[in-house]
Amino acid sequence: MKKLKVDISVEESQAGAAERRAKGEFVRDVSGFRHAIGDPDFPAEPHRYHLFVALNCPWCHRVTLARNVLGLQDSITLDVAFPSRTGDDDPAGPNLWEFNPARLSTLTGAPLPECTAETGTGLSYRLVKQIYTAEGADEGSVPVLYDKKSKRIVNNESAEIIRALNEQTGALGSSIPDADRPDLYPNSHPLRAEIDALNANIYTKINNGAYKAGFSSDQAVYAAAFDAYFSMLAKLETRLASDGRPFLTGDSFTEADLRLFPTLYRHDPVYYLRMKLNGAKILDYPHLWRWLCRVYALPGVAQSNALVHCRQGYFGRSWNNTVPLGPFNPMTYPEAYNHPKLSTSN
Hints:
By secondary structure, the chain is mainly alpha-helical. It contains ten helices and four strands, in the order αβαβαββααααααα.
């Protein structure tokens, strides 16, 4: 299996991972399946590929965003796992992603309409782990890009999946004409270098940084992650304010915007509490707030996720499994993202 060199914009270094975890640091695992659409075994064809996701997962959110903004909803099929994983009483064991459209949400008291059964393999698996076990792998994460024709996992690293979808969009059968479709990683060296630099900082300090803050049990690790997170938010606010640019690299929505969005989308209603990132809300950054609303208004973006899943998934894993009902001031979410002028600063 092809294995890529560690890229800090894609994955976390595993150097000393066991020791770091023992000291209380959250260290993200490395994804094991790293093929690309366009490899000889995985040609770019419409209706061949499938995605397994959970909507509370920000790494999955990257992938559903790319699928939607690139017009691949009709070409790449999708299954959605329940946002809370299995419990200790499950016969297969705890902490496993499951496809269970009948499972009740503790937040709503009803099934979540976005959840599906498993349809990609043709075997109606209940657990994501079973998809991996069929290939002799011991992983169980989402997202998973799956080849329905060869019955194989293509890739389970979100950064590489979105890059592949962008590179092969036309061949995969996008419903959006070439002239109207965004190019998330344009073939321009200066712009690619700018996107790469933003990706590295956004991944380390924002995307993965939120998890370092929320899931590390060492106070010093949490404090460092907290400081880096808000320092990076301030830099991004200044970047957008400097010339009124609509997106991070200028006039066009790119991969850098796509990779930032899932974390900021979750910040006010979820991460502010759950990840202990209560230094400020995105509402307190007027240019970032307007950027967040601008991205949310793009075609397909609002349909790429569901905050009910985020709230159920994150708070459902807290010690008492109780899901907060707010915030409702100044407005409930995600309705707030339709109001760019709502920011508390001017």
